[in-house]
Amino acid sequence: MPLKEGGREYTRATPGDVMGRLFGTNGIRGVVNRDLTVEMVVKLASSAGSILGSRVALGRDGRISSFLFKEAALSGLLSVGCDVFDLGIVPTPVLQYATKHFNLDGGLMITASHNPPEFNGVKVIAGDGVEVSRSVEEKIEGVYFKGGPELASWDHVGETHELHAFEPYCTSILSNIDLEAVRRANLKVAVDPGNGVATLVAPRIAQELGCKTYSVNADVDGMFPSRDSEPRPDNLNDLSALVQATGADLGVAFDGDADRAIFVDEKGRIYWGDVSFALVVKEFLKKHPGEAVATPVSSSRIIKDVVEEGGGSLLWTSVGSVTVSRTMVERSIKLGGEENGGIMYAPHQPVRDGSMAMALILEAMAKEAEPASRLFGKLLRYRQMKAKVPCPEHLKSKVMEKLESSVEAEHIEKIDGIKLWYQDDSWILIRPSGTEPAIRLYAEAKEEARVSKLLENGKKNIEEIISKLSH
Ligand code: MG
Asked: CA-to-CA distance for 416 and 2, rounded, in angstroms?
């Protein structure tokens, strides 16, 4: 059943709901003690431990239930003989960095990212620090649904070690930035971790970058009393106000597990992730001419524009951060990003990292010596809107087939669903939802009226196909 989260509908992950499937689009998520129980986490952790290897990192976010599930995961891992490296409360990118940096075989992160407080979940990380691929998820699911793995004998259960990773993690971010340039710029930055675990690293990194740092909602609180843990233009009023009250040059808000960052300019204006990613791409191509950049097909055309203007090459991927990260690793691509504020910078690590994103934006501001409102403003060229049409699961592929044979455009791309590019630079992407019985539409153009028209026509087209197929 679709739930409402901050005005957005989504379908909850229901582990075990679909036989043989445990993982959703980004790990395992569910409502605590309803969809996700201690017993399930013990079995998931032991199953994952039996596949990942003998040395596994374990971390958790600041949610009320995260201690509960961390202890469950710890027991599951130890029971199959894994030695566990316990990182305590950390942002997801810190756990990912530690897994690779300390040569561990994998990691488990107890977090529900940006979901409401009643949710929790588990992200499973491979030895390279990136979320495991679908094929590894299938192996883990195979073990899980066959009743769990073989347990270790009594004298071979694992040991627990404490592991501290903040130091090497922060050092890595700072060493991948022109530190002197940023420090010389004397920027002021306002930070809003939204009561999430970004509190533990982001203000510190901003200070190390020589920024006068102000913060709001900067205590870890699993109830998320200040705002939804997903930063969006409609819930960052506290940050906008702090930016204006302090005269800060930049505001930055993080999601619950600190892998995504959304930015606010010195006037308090909030930008969606396409614009901040475009600024990072622009600076990146000045430093690394000719390099490739990866982004999902749902991203704004502004990314294509700045890549072309900077003489780089753009690789479109299917939608989902794990796909972008895995593509970056396979093809040695240094920079990737999503419209929701996820930026992957491989010289640090090829996964979404909110603090790294903040450092890259501060570096761009220092180098350009222009206010954020001008830097971001120049990249606000397009309007994007989304919609969806309800569609029964069993009709999804037929609808897409029919659509494919009926559409016309200047250029048609089939990386993930169908993307139609038109001569006036507008486009529409139509793809079946991976999480609910619906077909999703994303459209973008220079003029709002054109976006509405594209969405309207797209919806009408799909509705007609569904109605014909249903009769
Ligand atoms: Mg997140």
From this structure: 23
Q: pLDDT tens for residues 162-205?
A: 999 999 999 999 999 999 999 999 999 999 999 999 999 999 99
Identify which of 180, 179, 204, 173 has the alpha carbon closest to the alpha carbon of residue 191. 204
247 and 311 housed in the same domain: yes
The predicted-structure confidence for 247-257, as pLDDT tens digits, reads as follows 999 999 999 99
Across the beta sheet with 438-445, the strand order is 383-390, 438-445, 427-432, 418-421, 411-413
User: Do residues 358 and 387 both lie within one domain?
Assistant: no
Catalytic residues: 113
Residues 40 and 182 grouped into a single domain: no
**DSSP three-state, residue 219:** coil
CA distance 172 to 97: 9
CA of 195 to the centre of ligand 1 (A): 13
Q: Which ranges of 159-236 does DSSP label H, i.e. alpha helix?
A: 166-175, 179-185, 202-208
Q: Which residue has the tokens 């507008």?
A: 426
Judgement on whether residues 247 and 393 belong to the same structural domain of the protein: no
**Ligand 1 center–CA 342 separation, angstroms:** 8
Backbone angle region of 253, left / alpha / beta, with phi > 0 → left and psi within -120 to 50 → alpha = beta
What is the 249 CA–ligand 1 centroid distance (Å)? 25
* Length of the chain measured in residues: 471
| Reported pTM | 0.94
